[in-house]
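#help-structures

NK: newbie question. if I give both the sequence and a SMILES, will the prediction place the ligand too? trying with S-adenosylmethionine
OV: yes, paste both and it writes out the complex. here, I ran yours:
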Amino acid sequence: MNTKDRVTQEELLEKRAESIKTMFGSIVKVYDLLNALLSLNFDKSWRKFAARVSGIKPDTKVLDVCTGTGDLAISYSKLLNGKGLVVGSDYCHDMLRYGLPKIKKRHLEDKIKFIEADTLHLPFNDDSFEVSTVAFGIRNVVDLEAGIKEMRRVVRPNGRVVILEFSQPTNFLFRRIYFLYFTKILPVIGKLISRSSVPREPRLSPPRCKFDAYTYLPHSVLAFPDKLGLKSKMEKCGLKDVKIFERTFGIVTVHIGEKPPASSIVS
Ligand SMILES: C[S@@+](CC[C@H](N)C(=O)[O-])C[C@H]1O[C@@H](n2cnc3c(N)ncnc32)[C@H](O)[C@@H]1O
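OV: that's the protein plus ligand as structure tokens.
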């Protein structure tokens, strides 16, 4: 690839990242509602599970990247039971803005801090956290490996990177029914509800977005590496002992990898 091609490639990635950011900004008002509705309220238990299996100890510092409205950060903070600190980062300002009242309502302002940041350029020193985690976010990061490497960089040696993400169910019959729902029914419900949330006055409209978030969702999941594919990506990004936990017939999976001691890291 020559320099000219590389610049074009970078520009394309930047444009894609901008479109994805705009897309999330456009659904922020209905994001939590649709999460609960479209997952039949399973989403909360998936996040709780991810926090639980991460094996965090009291007084732990956790980073939740692509935190959105902060639900995974809240699950971790509850598990820490008033100790430690959870930092939630996201590049979409509106997502964080909608998450803040949830933190305040639970009196967790001192225990959860939000910061506007791109997962590809985290504003933290190396080895700053015990755990870096992400729920349904890494799939949207335009450079998956660079995102995982950033998550690895900011955890201390022997710390963990925990990824909760949609995956593809393995049972043949369940898979067929699920894909019918996921690719045909879910986008229609998502579109109807997110469109109806758009205010009528043009000056109040959310940013225009060429993607429809709930059509993009199944496409992005189908294009994402499968369970073993993600495991090997994590290994390639310098994580070891990657463990996989499936939930709800394999609709979602939690991957946990450990950052090796400093001397054995190969970048
Ligand atoms: C599907 S939402 C997940 C939100 C939350 N983690 C949850 O469990 O509901 C994906 C989030 O990733 C964020 N995101 C995508 N790419 C990002 C990036 N490169 N840096 C920071 N945030 C990003 C979006 O703004 C959005 O809030």
